[in-house]
Amino acid sequence: MTRRKIIIDCDPGQDDAVALFLAFAAADVFELLGITTVAGNVPLELTQRNARMMCDIAKVDNVPVYAGCNRPLELELATAEAIHGDTGIDGIDVFEPALELADGHAVSFIVDTLLKAEPDSITLVPTGPLTNIATAIRREPRILPAVREIVLMGGAMREGGNHSPSAEFNMLVDPHAADTVFNCGRPVTALGLDVTHQVLSTRERVARIAALDNPVAAATAGMLSFFHRYDSKKYGSEGAPLHDPCTIAYLLEPNLFTDKLVNVSVETESPLTRGHTAVDFWRVTGRPHNTRWVYAVDADGFFELLTARLARFG
Ligand code: BDR
Ligand code: CA
User: Fold this and answer.
1) What is the pLDDT of residues 213-224, one digit of tens each?
2) Which one of the ligands is nearest to 191 CA?
3) Which of 89, 195, 243, when mutated, tests ligand 1's pocket best, judged by the most ligand atoms within 8 Å of its CB?
4) Which of 13, 129, 186, 283 is the most exposed place for a label (fewest CB within 10 A)?
């Protein structure tokens, strides 16, 4: 079987880190061309270091990790240490990774890779603010034909916002970039809070992962145990939403998810609702659909998939 070529663009973040682990655990399905990092949950110096740490923990040394944009296109950077801790990946001990940062800017890597690629051949998987992806598209629109699909974590409809009353974090941090990506003309699949809030890392689910007893599972359980605290308190839920791994799980087992083709427009101006994703779920605007909006998931199936894949590191 031909493996699906992907680039993961991320801002680790505990949940980004678990998304990376899940992708590493599916090397039979994915050809991971590179990991590009962006400022988001924590500043860029930490997101790129954290991505390299995950490679080290999983013993992945053949995937380049690039550093990209250190701030959003037009706004000041807003980070989320209150949720992720000062390191971005609180819950495990931080170390200086052996894997070195790849030379060059993440945006140049994305542009160069896509310009050389066959049409419809590369899937972009952004799990942070969309600054790197939008910068690449704006700088070199000729990359677009090579994009097979963009499967991103971001946005919210029924759930409202998590960092403002109406905006999800990745959209809020860089709404201008999000606007570019949703309207780029290539297939976009969005997994926003409506679906990720159904995927809760309950104590029981985390305990099952911890019991796998391998370094990647242990790191996952450590990070999720930390992640748990803030969100459980905030939402009064049994566990934290495992946002970013939903993207990789969707690519691995789309049948676990339910979606609908809709138009998504991003608010870029209003100080009150900046970053809001206006999802035309009932198709009342007549705007053409630009997004596959994922809104439901079999959460038990998701955790079975994650646990089974993480067991492979044993
Ligand atoms: C998104 O924001 C970050 O906190 C997470 O890593 C995820 O990508 C959820 O709103
Ligand atoms: Ca993220």
Assistant:
1) 899 999 999 999
2) 1
3) 243
4) 283
Q: Judging by beta carbons within 10 Å of its beta carbon (0-12, 13-18, 19+), is residue 298 exposed, middle or buried?
A: middle
pLDDT average, residue stretch 192-201: 97
> Helices marked H in the chain — which ranges?
14-24, 44-57, 81-84, 106-116, 131-139, 169-173, 175-182, 193-196, 203-210, 215-235, 245-252, 299-311
Query: pTM of this prediction?
Result: 0.97
Structure tokens at 2: 């031909």
Contact 31/3 with Cβ under 8 angstroms? yes
pLDDT reported for residue 238: 81
Does 230 score more than 90 pLDDT? no
Structural domain count of the chain: 1
- Of ligand 1's listed atoms, the one at least distance from the Cα of 12 is 6
C-beta of residue 130 within 8 angstroms of C-beta of residue 181: yes
* Confidence band for 233, pLDDT divided at 50, 70 and 90: confident
Residues with Cβ within 6 A of ligand 1?
A: 13, 15-16, 41, 80, 83, 127-128, 153, 162, 168-170, 243-244
Residue showing tokens 């052996």: 98
Q: What is the CATH number of the domain that holds 232?
A: 3.90.245.10
- Report pLDDT for 306: 98
Nearest ligand 1 atom, CA 244: 8
**How far apart are the C-alpha atoms of 299 and 7, rounded to whole Å?**
25
Residues 240, 230 contacting (CB under 8 angstroms): yes
Q: How far is the CA of 244 from the centre of ligand 1 (A)?
A: 7
Torsion of CA 290, 299, 38, 186, to 10 degrees: -20
Tokens 């998304």 identify what position? 19
Q: Catalytic residue numbers?
A: 243
Please give the Cα distance from 218 to 230 (Å, whole number): 20
